[in-house]
Amino acid sequence: MNRESKIDRCNLPPLLQEYSDYMSIRYSPRTVEDKLRVVLALHEFLVSNLGRSIERLEASDVQRYFAKLTLRKEQGEMRQNSIFIMAANIKIFAKWLRREEIIKPEEYLKIEEDLGDIPNEVGEDKRVALSYDEQQKIFVKMVLPLHKQLVWTGLNHGLRRQEYCHLRVKHLELEMERPRLKIELSKGHNRKTRYIPLSPNQVNQWRKWLRFRASMNLPHDYVFFNPKNPRAGGLNYNGLCSLFRVMTKILGVHLYSHRFRYTYAVTLWKHGVDIFVISKLLGHSNIETTIKYLKVREEEFYKKFEEQSRGLFD
């Protein structure tokens, strides 16, 4: 199916029409199209190969479908990353089926387990944190205040890309007895609010940035703005990625929002912060995701246990 072609939702199977309505509340129209396209491809596979629709989805169906995709990958027709993305979207669909009691919980768990083993060739396990020397190099060579603040924010708070773009001045709660950064996600299935405590040095840095921002008399309250047209509004996703690409060329160090996020997590871990605290600061709903971020080896867990539990059970 052509990625650019629009899906005619009126001709979707009734179940997928319901799923489309559900997703439209949570995602942008383009994202809903992308997610529907993945599920529709699975539906078409079931109809043509098994003679039944997706309403009776079983774990064995998903296994057959991804076996076919793996074969296409081996023949050079697909990339592993595409398979990983399809698996992630089908997991979301299967979770919805379980919530609507269309499939049994045990069937959903089998699907989730199978899809959880699919690797991502450019996924989290290949991303690495910035070394101390690389971090120093960034701050020495960065000149523009906006560039410096974006990097500092990533290293100090580990924001996701959309969190940079949605951050408003009101989210910097600096005058409270316990200053904090309020993170709100207004789009996507992960519609949550979390708070990141701020140290005195972090508060001072944010105040310095807000003074610089105020000197520009901007007509909006976005914390980060488009450097080419600051008065137009906040940074969008593409604009943020473009800035990181510019920094990468200047520094010779590969920079992107999730690399700062990894670096933030690893820095906290190396300084003895509990992994459950790190998970909460990152906004992870599953501790396993945090473990993947940290690439924590078993011997490191043992070392941490020995250091922090010495004398506890004596």
Question: What is the mean pLDDT?
Answer: 85
Measured between the Cα atoms of the first and last residue, the distance is 65 Å
The CATH topology of the largest domain comes to: hpI Integrase, Chain A
Which overall shape is indicated by the principal axes computed on the Cα atoms? Answer: globular
Task: Output the strand order for the largest sheet.
Answer: 1-2-3
Count of discrete alpha- or pi-helical segments spanning 4 or more residues: 14
CATH superfamily of the largest domain: Intergrase catalytic core
Secondary-structure element order, N to C: HHHHHHHHEEEHHHHHH
> What integer value in Å does the Rg equal?
23 Å
Annotation keywords:
single chain, 314 residues, mainly alpha, hpI Integrase, Chain A, 2 domains, 3-stranded antiparallel β-sheet, 4% strand
Outline of the structure:
By secondary structure, the protein is mainly α.
Question: Can you give a write-up of this model?
Answer:
The protein has about 325 residues and is mainly α. It has two domains: about 10-120; about 125-310, Intergrase catalytic core (hpI Integrase, Chain A, Orthogonal Bundle), CATH 1.10.443.10. It has 14 helices and three strands. It has helices at about 15-25, 30-50, 60-75, 80-100, 105-115, 130-140, 145-155, 160-165, 200-215, 235-250, 255-270, 275-280, 285-295, 300-310, and strands spanning about 170-175, 180-185, 195. It has a three-stranded antiparallel β-sheet, with no helix packed on it. The N and C termini lie far apart (about 65 Å). The relative contact order is 0.08. The model has no long low-confidence stretch (mean pLDDT about 85).
